[in-house]
Amino acid sequence: MKLTCLVDNAVLPLSSFWGEHGLAVLVESRDGRVLMDTGASAAVFLHNLEAAGIAPETIRALVISHGHHDHTGGLGAFLERQPGLPLYAHPGIMTERFSQKEGNLRAIGMKMALAELRRQADLRLSAEPQEVLPGIWTTGEIIGRSEPEGRSPNHVVRGEAGCVPDPYRDDMSLVLETGAGLVLVCGCCHAGLLNTLNHVARVFGRPVLAIFGGTHLVSADAAHLERVNRRLKEMPALKAVYPNHCTGERAIFHLMQALGPQMVHAWPAGSVLDLETVV
């Protein structure tokens, strides 16, 4: 398998890719290409697809990690070029989401209406794990959240008595099966990185060899960062961590201090990795 970071906050130096606060990842296997998320805007996402030499019609399936706009901004424009594509996600991706600051609400959820999404894509919504292509799975809903989640204090949804904290029920990751173990590809990990790892261990029953993507440790306090570092150090099969997007510079620094720069690597837009060289 091969992984390409198509959209991220940072960009590979001297590349022709554009950056924005968002994420999109391309997974390539012998059975085809799977796209996870579409960045925050059509302009950046489509530009970077072209920069990577990826024709939309060569992608066999689409996975949406969760319904925030920085992961779904290019969705409509992409589906116009590749209509009818199987789209895997949690049933809760259409939940209205907001950022609440000083009493003001700003919409940060999906911009496409459900009717339009149903018209343009072959929706495959489930809270259970789904196999997208052979060896490429969604985690399903992250059940059992005993560890801290990847939260923002400003993220809310509408409840019966007003706005309440977003439960992030739709947050999912991708699991890639290799001969030696699993590779975890995260969108934002709002469910919490440790909760996601616990869930993957229960559901898939194989060791995680590498972790890629957004881990939403940007708002983690020192105690939680130490707990994450300790847990990752205790994973004997873990060979590499490639954090980006919402992980945060402070958290990446802590990970490098704990695991060493030989294990923790930047993963900006434009980066292409053959998993055989990683795991």
Can you summarize the main beta sheet? 7 strands, mixed
Order of helices and strands: EEEHEHHEEEHEEEEEEEHEHEHEH
The helix-and-strand class reads alpha/beta
The amount of beta strand, in percent, is 25-35%
Low-confidence parts lasting 5 or more residues at pLDDT below 50? none
Write the layout of secondary structure elements.
Layout: E1 2-7, E2 24-29, E3 32-36, H1 42-51, E4 59-63, H2 69-72, H3 75-81, E5 85-89, E6 98-101, E7 104-107, H4 114-120, E8 121-125, E9 131-133, E10 136-138, E11 155-159, E12 162-165, E13 173-177, E14 182-186, H5 193-204, E15 208-214, H6 222-233, E16 240-244, H7 249-259, E17 272-274, H8 275-278
Parallel strand pairs: 3-4, 4-5, 5-8, 14-15, 15-16
Antiparallel strand pairs: 1-2, 1-17, 2-3, 6-7, 6-11, 9-10, 10-13, 11-12, 13-14
Helix pairs in contact: 6-7
Describe the structure.
The chain is an alpha/beta fold and 279 residues long. 24% of the residues lie in helices and 29% in strands. The chain has eight helices and 17 strands. The strands form three sheets. The chain has a seven-stranded mixed beta sheet with strand order 8-5-4-3-2-1-17. It has a six-stranded mixed beta sheet with strand order 9-10-13-14-15-16, covered by helices on one side. Strands 7-6-11-12 form a four-stranded antiparallel beta sheet, with no helix packed on it. A hairpin with a 4-residue loop joins strand 13 and strand 14. Helix 6 runs parallel beside helix 7. It is globular, with a radius of gyration of 17 Å. It starts with a strand and ends with a helix.
